[in-house]
Amino acid sequence: MKRRLLWKLVATIVIGTILLFWLIHILLLHTEQHMSFIDQRYQSELKAYAKLAEKYHENGDIQSLNEWVKHLQEKENTWVAVVSSNVAPVGNSYISEQYQERFALGRDISWKIHLYFKENPTMDLPFSDGKTHFLITLPDRMRPGAYWFQTSLLLQIALPLLLMTLISLIIYRHVMSPLSQLEKATRQFSDGNFNVRVGKTLAKRQDEITALGDTFDGMAERIGHLIQTQRHLISDLSHELRTPLARVELALSWAENQDLDPKLIERIRYESQQMRVLVEDTLTLAWLDNECPDLRQETLDLTDLIDSIIEDARFEFPKCEIKATMPEHAIIENSSARAIGHAFENILRNALAHTPDGQTVKVIVEKVADQYQIYIDDFGPGIAPHHLTNIFKPFFRLAHSGRQLHRGFGVGLSLAKRHIEVCGGQLSAENLVTGGLRMNMVLPAS
Question: What's this model's pTM, rounded to 2 decimal places?
Answer without folding.
Answer: 0.48
